């Protein structure tokens, strides 16, 4: 407990422990030695920096090793484009799962909502509904499921895992009744599919446009969660609902808002999925839920260790994608995706609980 | 009879020397108190004895047997005859007394392997009798008085031990006990001692030590600073030994009561309180004394908007005041520091800065983003102003000691210059020095014009802090009041346990 983390001149590191652990004044410590500036609180020791950037480093290692192993296939513009674009939808779906998690709530319905929103929009377009209206409706479907989740969790105090498992199944059931197993291809305009297309004339700076839409969404969520009072109150509810109530946060409203926002983001992911694949396929949605959660949890061990955060989540998405695609090129593809996502989920949850405990 | 001796115990956590060559002797058949502030090493020492931590050096001598503390285990501690009762008693409220005892002693079974309930009850009855627990074997443990729950925990720990064969170690057994219950427990401990049992008692409450213990050891910064007989010691001297330097008590002036009223509660009722008539004025610290379950917490919660009054009229600065939720109370300038610090006071996992600004985040919302620079600057300023000991403001709140965490919670509210401050057990589980700091902060707040309601089970503390103390008797708040110069722990205790309401005037 004497690792005071006081910066020594010359940039040597006085800390003997990670920055999360701190000093506890046992009586002998001088009163608060204020950090000179904000940045000084971080980066005082090698360890937390390593911890923060470990996943980014691993991503780099994976890319380098795979590139050396398969120089003709892996480090190509085509593979880079395909990986970036194919993961954009998953990344937005992960953001959809992230917002409720910041408020301490699990949402297992993101994938199902994504599917419903994609198919709903495709079906509306097939009937001649104008594009903006169809897309708005798709996001609306997501928000509606989100509000329902939030109301069930807060008003009836049902465990969120059960609630979202239930609504996910209901959404899938309704979808099945409504469109059967049909894949909807009719009436989807090129003005939408252009965003997902990998044709050279549709690219922006060499990348499919969905990648930029994903980046835009990520920035918006990052801003909302980390830089607004709303985001801070979500985090307060996530840390302790009882304490949050006592400081004047409307806990129920925040919880409902978190689920609604998560649902709407899953709706946005559905729209991107429609743009990317050019079809409304009721079978794809549910497959997104687990990898999305895996990325959020694995991401919580990076950038801001121990906390659910947007930057870490995006890094985790691409770390998993780069690894899985590399292993596929090496001919080790069988079962590698569920294996990897499963391990990522377990590692992520395990790491974040270890990190949280170590801060005590 | 077995006494207990610790020889040269040393324990290091990283660079921190938690125990530095500690030796102490607990005489056989005596009650021995172990004292020290938070971080003094007393918890570490108990954990060494229990075998939870291994020492770096040191021996333990019980009776004639000697053990190596560097290789001590919980199993060895049990075989040595050390019996532990911890602060959280480990009683299962939903299970019966007999079942609670069986969890410690093992179930008696028939030859078929079924639990032999008649035998179980008979043995429970014997234990209840031996330890003077006021219960039957079938009583749910949750229905017992707090003191009886403590006695039950002791009964479970000691089992059928012979008085001379084992040493009872009590870690803060009275932390959550009201005064009357403490008496019940003490009577029982004295009986155990008189029967030849050796008892080691860890506590924060000094008056208890003077009342009960035969000998005491005081730890400070991991060293023994005093070991002696209790006879002839006084409270002030103990405080000095524990704190290491004379601690100035908060200055206190008896208020005239002519200041403007902050809150006036008339003819109100909530929970167990059937009649509440209470006025708190500007600049005044009003203590609330009462037994556990007397409705102290309910009173504060009703004022803080956490629960509704059953009836009554409440006026805050001349306006009707009926908060529906805590945010209404906060908006009206009423702030509340809850009793359960880890559960509802601090945000575990968030930083010191975030904990300070919880509820005030909007103040930093400027031109579409949160002003991190201003947040950190204000956090540093508050840390300094409220005497929080922490290296910097980005530490996780869990890295601070309990006393410093509580200062953070108090700073969170007092920075806003509230009209009315409600404090529920603000110094529970906090060392002497931090307690005095908090009492001083509260007094200063009152000097600046807030009204303060101060609930505490520690009557010494109420006597030190309050201008007047309202004693809850029989569900009534308001008729039974003691004013500043004459508040003493003894007066409050006698008021609490007299079932008659004595008007203040009559007692003068």
Question: If you had to describe this structure to a student in words, what would you say it looks like?
Answer:
The complex is a heterodimer of chains A (360) and B (508). By secondary structure, chain A is an all-alpha fold. Chain A contains 13 helices and no strands. Chain A is globular. The model of chain A is unreliable at 1-44 (pLDDT under 50). By secondary structure, chain B is an alpha/beta fold. In chain B, 34% of the residues lie in helices and 24% in strands. Chain B has 18 helices and 23 strands. In chain B, the strands form 5 sheets. A 6-stranded mixed beta sheet of chain B has the order 6-7-8-3-9-10, sandwiched between helices. In chain B, helix 16 crosses helix 17 (489-497). Chain B starts with a strand and ends with a helix. Chains A and B meet through helix 8 and helix 9 of A and helix 10, helix 11, strand 18 and helix 13 of B.
| Count of distinct strands of chain A | 0
Rg for CA atoms of chain B = 25 Å
Strand content of chain A: under 5%
Helix count from the secondary structure assignment of chain A: 13
What is the number of beta strands of chain B? 23
Percentage of helical residues of chain A? 55-70%
In whole angstroms, the N-to-C terminal distance of chain A is: 11 Å
- Low-confidence runs of chain A: 1-44
Overall mean pLDDT of chain B stands at 84
**Main sheet overview of chain B:** 6 strands, mixed
Which overall shape of chain B is indicated by the principal axes computed on the Cα atoms?
A: globular
Order of helices and strands of chain A: HHHHHHHHHHHHH
């Amino acid at each position: 407990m004497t690792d005071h983390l006081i910066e020594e001149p010359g940039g040597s590191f006085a800390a003997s422990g990670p920055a999360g652990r701190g000093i506890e004044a046992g009586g002998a410590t001088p009163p608060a030695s204020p950090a000179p500036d904000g940045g000084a609180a971080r980066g005082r020791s090698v360890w937390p920096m390593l911890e923060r950037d470990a996943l980014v480093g691993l991503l780099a290692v994976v890319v380098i090793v795979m590139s050396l192993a398969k120089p003709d296939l892996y480090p190509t513009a085509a593979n880079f484009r395909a990986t970036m674009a194919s993961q954009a939808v998953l990344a937005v779906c992960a953001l959809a799962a992230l917002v409720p998690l910041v408020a301490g709530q699990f949402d297992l319905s993101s994938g199902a909502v994504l599917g419903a929103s994609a198919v709903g929009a495709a079906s509306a377009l097939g009937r001649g509904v104008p594009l903006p209206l169809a897309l708005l409706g798709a996001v609306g479907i997501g928000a509606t499921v989100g509000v329902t989740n939030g109301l069930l969790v807060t008003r009836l105090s049902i465990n969120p895992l059960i609630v979202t498992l239930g609504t996910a199944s209901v959404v899938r059931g309704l979808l099945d009744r409504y469109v059967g197993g049909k894949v909807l291809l009719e009436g989807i305009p090129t003005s939408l599919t252009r965003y997902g297309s990998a044709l050279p004339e549709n690219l922006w700076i060499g990348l499919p446009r969905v990648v930029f839409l994903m980046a835009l969404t990520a920035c918006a969520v990052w801003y909302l969660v980390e830089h607004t009072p709303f985001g801070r109150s979500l985090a307060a509810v996530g840390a302790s609902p009882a304490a949050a109530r006592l400081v004047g946060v409307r806990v129920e409203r925040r919880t409902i808002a978190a689920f609604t926002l998560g649902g709407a983001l899953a709706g946005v992911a559905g729209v991107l999925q429609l743009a990317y694949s050019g079809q409304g396929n009721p079978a794809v949605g549910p497959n997104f839920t687990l990898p999305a959660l895996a990325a959020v949890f694995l991401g919580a061990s990076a950038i801001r260790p121990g906390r659910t955060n947007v930057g870490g989540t995006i890094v985790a998405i691409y770390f998993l994608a780069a690894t899985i695609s590399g292993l596929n090129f090496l001919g080790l593809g069988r079962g590698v995706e569920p294996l990897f996502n499963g391990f990522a989920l377990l590692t992520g949850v395990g790491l974040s609980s270890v990190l949280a405990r170590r801060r005590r | 009879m077995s006494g207990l001796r610790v020889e040269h115990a040393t324990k290091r956590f990283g660079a921190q020397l938690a125990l530095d060559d500690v030796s102490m002797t607990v005489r056989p058949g005596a009650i021995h108190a172990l004292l020290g502030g938070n971080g003094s090493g007393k918890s570490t020492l108990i954990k060494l004895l229990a075998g939870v931590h291994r020492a770096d050096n040191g021996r333990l001598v019980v009776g004639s047997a000697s053990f190596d503390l560097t290789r001590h285990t919980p199993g060895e501690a049990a075989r040595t005859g050390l019996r532990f009762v911890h602060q959280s008693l480990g009683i299962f409220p939903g299970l019966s007394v007999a079942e609670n005892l069986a969890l410690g002693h093992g179930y008696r079974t028939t030859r078929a392997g079924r639990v032999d309930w008649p035998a179980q009850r008979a043995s429970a009855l014997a234990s209840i009798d031996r330890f003077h627990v006021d219960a039957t074997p079938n009583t749910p443990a949750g229905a017992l008085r707090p003191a009886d729950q403590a006695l039950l925990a002791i009964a479970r720990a000691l089992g059928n031990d012979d008085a001379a064969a084992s040493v009872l170690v009590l870690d803060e057994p009275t932390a959550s006990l009201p005064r009357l219950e403490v008496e019940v427990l003490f009577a029982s401990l004295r009986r155990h001692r008189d029967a030849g049992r050796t008892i080691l008692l860890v506590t924060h409450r000094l008056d208890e030590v003077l009342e009960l213990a035969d000998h005491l050891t005081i730890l400070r910064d991991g060293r023994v600073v005093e070991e002696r007989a209790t006879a002839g010691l006084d409270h002030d001297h103990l405080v000095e030994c524990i704190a290491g330097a004379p601690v100035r008590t908060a200055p206190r002036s008896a208020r005239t009561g002519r200041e403007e009223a902050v809150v006036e509660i008339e003819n109100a009722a909530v929970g167990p309180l059937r009649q509440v008539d209470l006025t708190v004025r500007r600049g005044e610290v009003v203590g609330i004394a009462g037994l556990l379950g007397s409705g102290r917490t309910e009173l504060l919660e009703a004022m803080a908007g956490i629960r509704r009054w059953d009836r009554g009229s409440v006026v805050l600065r001349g306006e009707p005041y009926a908060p529906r939720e805590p945010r209404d109370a906060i908006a009206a300038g009423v702030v509340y520091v809850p009793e359960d610090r880890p559960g509802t006071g601090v945000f575990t996992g968030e930083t010191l800065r975030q904990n300070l600004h919880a509820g005030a985040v909007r103040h930093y919302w400027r031109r579409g983003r949160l002003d991190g620079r201003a947040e950190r600057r204000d956090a540093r300023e508050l840390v300094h102003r409220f005497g929080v000991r922490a290296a910097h403001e980005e530490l996780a709140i869990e890295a601070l000691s309990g006393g410093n965490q509580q200062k953070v919670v108090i700073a969170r509210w007092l920075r806003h210059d509230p009209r009315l401050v409600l404090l529920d057990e603000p110094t529970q589980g906090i060392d002497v020095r931090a307690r005095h700091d908090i009492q001083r902060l509260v007094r200063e707040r009152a000097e600046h014009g807030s009204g303060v309601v101060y609930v505490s089970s520690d009557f010494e503390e109420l006597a030190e802090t309050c201008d007047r103390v309202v004693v809850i008797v029989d569900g009534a708040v308001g008729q039974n009041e003691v004013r500043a110069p004459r508040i003493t722990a003894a007066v409050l205790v006698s008021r609490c346990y007299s079932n008659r309401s004595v008007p203040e005037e009559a007692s003068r």
